[in-house]
Amino acid sequence: MSLWTKAQQLQGEALRQVQAVYGEHFPIEVRHFLAPWIESKIMSDVDPDNPQHEQYAASVVGALIQELESKAQALTNEEFFLTKIKLQGAAEMFRQRYSQNPLGLLRIIRHCLGTELKLVQQAENMSLGMSSNPAALLPDASGEILQQLDILRQRTQETSEDLRRMEQEQEAFALEYHELTKIQANLTHLQNQAPSQQKNDFEKQLRIKKEMSEHKLNVKLAELLQMRMALAEKHKETLMLIENLQARVLDDELIRWKREQQLAGNGVPFHSNLDSIQEWCEGLAEIIWLNRQQIKEAERLRAKFPIMQANNTDHVPALNTQITQLLSSLVTSTFIIERQPPQVMKTNTRFTAMVRLLVGGKLNVHMTPPQVTVSIISEQQANTLLKNDKMAKGEASGEILNNTGTMEYQKASRQLSVSFRNMQLRKIKRAEKKGTESVMDEKFSLLFQSKFSVGGGELVFQVWTLSLPVVVIVHGNQEPHAWATVTWDNAFAEPGRTPFVVPEKVPWSQVAETLSTKFRSATGRALTESNQRFLASKAFRNPNLQLPLVGPEAGNLMLTWSQFCKEPLPERNFTFWEWFYALMKLTREHLRAPWMDNTIVGFIGRKQTEDLLKQCLRGTFMLRFSDSELGGVTIAWVGDSSEVFMLQPFTSKDFAIRTLADRVSDLKHLIYLYPDIPKDQAFGKYYTPFTDSQTPTNGYVKPLLVTHVPGWSSGGGNLETGSYPPTPQGFYNPQSPEASMGRDTPSVHSATSETVHSRQVDGRSTYIIL
């Protein structure tokens, strides 16, 4: 039995809940006539919360529309005429509303099906005498909001009919009152006539009519006053429901979207539901506008017939003020930055941004296309703006080129937005620095401002929104510290803060999670718990740190901003963040694939590396990040007598010449990747292909640079066997050159081998440097 068949058999409240979940957003007629197709396709084929499924979702929605149109065409009986129109209207609505947002429609349908399934399962459990979990039956946020919007639409329709009936009653009262005035005029006229029996009879009839008319008027007046009071009470309740739903959409859902957008700046995956939020906001805008028009019409009717019951307060003016305030709040809150400007902004460098008004299409704002202006303001100016809700004219902290744009309406996506593609920060004014503050600690924000006209100029809204904090730099070497400021702000900014205040210290567990997320975003793999423990010992300058990274005690381990990026590491001239950032950059640019394959241990101390390798076979090696050199990775290996050696760290400059995998391949004394993986198995897929026969270009043969370690050559110079050129064995003594510095592990320098081979190329003797 299909789910829909079971759903139709539900009784009482359960059946009403099924009916309530459908509405304008997804008509129940569509569910009924396409039940088998919907359940076979949408329940199993696609995940509406996975952005990677969007292309497939678009094809499913297209097929749904085709099925719907085919079904409508097949309904030829006259009794299905209205249903046919309903299905055709639904197909057109799906095409206009969801062609650009197919996942949004599938999310709605999946919610409807999920609600049906939960209610059916609950009914089946109850029939079997099993208890169910009420919490499991709660619909998700999207479904609840759509359901509440449908309720508000229904209430708005009811008050519209009430208003129409009230207007008719008022017109009827006016007609009856006119009749009474005519009767009164006739009676007054009779008073001036000579007495007669005919006059007396006529006067008697008129007075009876007058009494009847006055009675009718009194009844109608009471009914009219009651209707006015009832309508005002209904509007009051509707406005309360609108206010609650709007608070949920704006203060919960939209604020959550903005927070997730900010966390995305640190690499947290961002599954934007902005199109769904726009749909909710558009629904609210339409409902608010219709109720506002009704309240204004009620005011007009009251002004036309100004009667009031004794001791009864006129609530309509207050309702008008309240509904206008709700509209103002909706418009100003839905002016948002869809695509943020770069948070580390270099002067004289092009950047982009995009702003959008979520209710622009529904309120026809695009009929008078609004202009948007962008300026950059300081942290102090942002504070002033929030307090006063306005900026002094011409006040800014810098000069931005191409900083104005006109919002455009895209009919297909129903989006009113403007994209700034060629902005450029030319100048910046900085505040005076205190103590250890640097220019990379200073935060700015881009201010987007506009003015919207609604209702043919009836209402004008001055709107503005601030970007996420921006750090302005003038040189590339300022980038690491600037990213530290941005990362800390994105991760630890608290809701409703004063711009742009952040805590001075935070729990290490939160810092570790932020670093892991950022590293995963840049390199493809997150940090392990072991990696995070090593980073904790590094950040707290305590190699013997043993505190847990999870559990109650972990919350007591607080890392300060100074420890994070201000204070140099012991015996180093760089900070913890600079060291971490350099390694993240190196891994992203040169080591991403090996890191994702777990061939690089990376975050491990020298002592632990030695302890692990000493237990392994000769030739076993490990790749770890250097403690002493920014953005360096070193190879540690075990030689004879279980002695461990460390190769001088390689940096980005080295890998730009020859890749890590090729360098590992060059060094023949490296045999096993820790613990016992043959190195060709671990790195073979990354080796650069090499053939002995090369076609010369412009009479030259391309040289091949080979890495070798003096004193560790395997000897031989035959290219075909892949061995090194001969190296003098006494050239380097592989004992620790830094014994005087107290280092136990020998550090070994690599070098480039250059050997000359002679070959006849085009009749000429050509030398190849290897």
TrEMBL record:
Organism for this UniProt entry: Daphnia magna
Q: Which UniProt keywords apply?
A: Activator, Cytoplasm, DNA-binding, Nucleus, Phosphoprotein, SH2 domain, Transcription, Transcription regulation
> Which family is it part of?
Belongs to the transcription factor STAT family.
Q: Look up the record and give one Gene Ontology term from the biological process aspect.
A: cell surface receptor signaling pathway
State the Gene Ontology terms under molecular function.
DNA binding; DNA-binding transcription factor activity
Compartment(s) where it occurs, according to its Swiss-Prot or TrEMBL record: Cytoplasm; Nucleus
According to the lineage, what is the superkingdom?
Eukaryota
Classification of source organism: Eukaryota, Metazoa, Ecdysozoa, Arthropoda, Crustacea
Question: What Gene Ontology cellular component terms go with this record?
Answer: cytosol; nucleus
| Protein name stated in the entry | Signal transducer and activator of transcription
Q: What is its main location?
A: cytoplasm
